[in-house]
Amino acid sequence: MGDQERNTEVDTRQLFAEPGTRVELPGISGLGGWLILIQISLIASLLLLVVDLSQVSVIMNPADRGMFSEADLDLYHRVMNPLLWYGVISNVFLLIIVIVNLVLLYKKKRQFPRMMIMLYLANVLAAIGTWIMIGQTEIPGALNAFDTTPARNLTIRSILTGCIFIPYFLKSVRVKNTFIK
């Protein structure tokens, strides 16, 4: 090396960055990589939530459709109606979060990673609430009212998904480089 001058460039962007702005880290950015899976899951969630909510009117008004006898309608209103309303309210809430997340994703907004974490936590809370409500539902004369296995599996799946993707959104260089607006 001797008398040769070293060609080193110092990145001073962080020193002079305006407060509140993120400086792009060296590495990858863009909506590729694992963010493709996130995009697919958000679009699939949007479609599934819309389909679920479109079927609500059929389920919420069984008397209009002649689905139950008079004796069964009383049982329906005491047992099923609270479960269905919980499902509708939680689905509307999740649908709003999914739509907001899709907008934030494609605008590459800084709030997107936090909102995705919020979506994963909301999914877990909705699944736990469903599991609890189904487990506490009693039908007179029935030994076991409802099988809670599907609700338990949904809860476990939501927790595992959150355990995988929440750390991804917190640590990923791609996420930090992409969502800077």
UniProtKB/TrEMBL annotation:
The chain crosses the membrane at residues 31-51, 83-105, 117-134, 154-170. InterPro entries: DUF2569. Pfam families: DUF2569. Keywords: Membrane, Transmembrane, Transmembrane helix. This is DUF2569 domain-containing protein. The lineage of its organism: Bacteria, Bacillati, Bacillota, Bacilli, Bacillales.
